[in-house]
Amino acid sequence: MERRGSGFPGPFLRQRERLESIRNRKHQDPNLPFAHYPPGLRELAGSSNLRYPQPTKCKKDWRVTKSSHRGSKSAGNIYVGVGGWTFAPWRGVFYPDKLTQAKELEYAASKLTSIEINGTYYGSQKPESFRKWAREVPDGFVFSVKGPRFATNRRVLAEAGDSVKRFYDSGVLELGDRLGPVLWQFAPTKKFDEADFRKFLELLPRKLEGRGLRHVVEVRHASFCVPDFIALLRKFETPVVFAEHGSYPAIADVTGDFVYARLQKGNDDIKTCYPPKQLDAWAKRLEAWAGGGEPDDLPRVDPTAAKKAPRDVFAYVIHEGKVRAPSGAMELIERVK
Questions:
Q1: What is the pTM of this model?
Q2: Which end of the chain, N or C, is less surrounded by CB atoms within 10 Å?
Q3: Are residues 148 and 242 in the same domain?
Q4: Alpha helices per DSSP H over 93-189
Q5: Which among 186, 208, 207 is positioned nearest to 197, based on CA atoms?
């Protein structure tokens, strides 16, 4: 997608000019009708003194996010969520019975503090989709986004440059400050090749359009459980996913300025997805990471401890059945508030 020096996507330039015209007319007509505002520019108009009609209050006020953000400089923020938001079995279990599908993201974002977007792994999304998703979540909510499989499911990772570029050109930056880490997930058959993996890390942009980008890698082959892999990630300041999984390697080494955990052993026969004691244990681990420490009950490849510093933590309850995943995520949010 083409971008101009103004910072606005090409299709928005004419709308921006129209907004300026409205601002000028505002001096003559302070009650300019809302219908005259350019569609899709409510965020821009909100930065001016233009008036808006007040939103209609819902009978059930579920639009209150249970925040797990921390204001203390001694600890990073903890974001907890699930994978995706469109899942039929959640209707009537997590989502209220009469909630329309169009409102599901807004509802989910009122209960969780993050969601991992999975659709980007399978194919490109449109810029307007990213903008729409960003509008539907509250301030402080953050998406993580899966990078495309076309970049990671290949024999020679050094050849992934075009796929990485197409991904960022697709409009993912339209999420604005709702954009969190990009997750690069590798196939369980992908083995560690230090030279090739180094080339892949070199392809990942660290800054675009003046904003820093966060990357995290998820490796699922035991060959990555070597100190050389940890050293490589630390050189590029790139975290590795801690995977709580039955067969994938569990690597709890801290290799970047944030931590990313995917909890995949939930049980749909348990209303809260995990037993209370396990939820308590996970809450303590998330808090340890956020405070700059490292849990002492998780396996590390390299015994060398990372430098102690506050870190943001992203944790997603993602198990195969996933019916009770939102309940597990909400339980964790309550414990780390």
A1: 0.80
A2: C
A3: yes
A4: 104-111, 119-122, 127-135, 149-152, 161-169
A5: 186
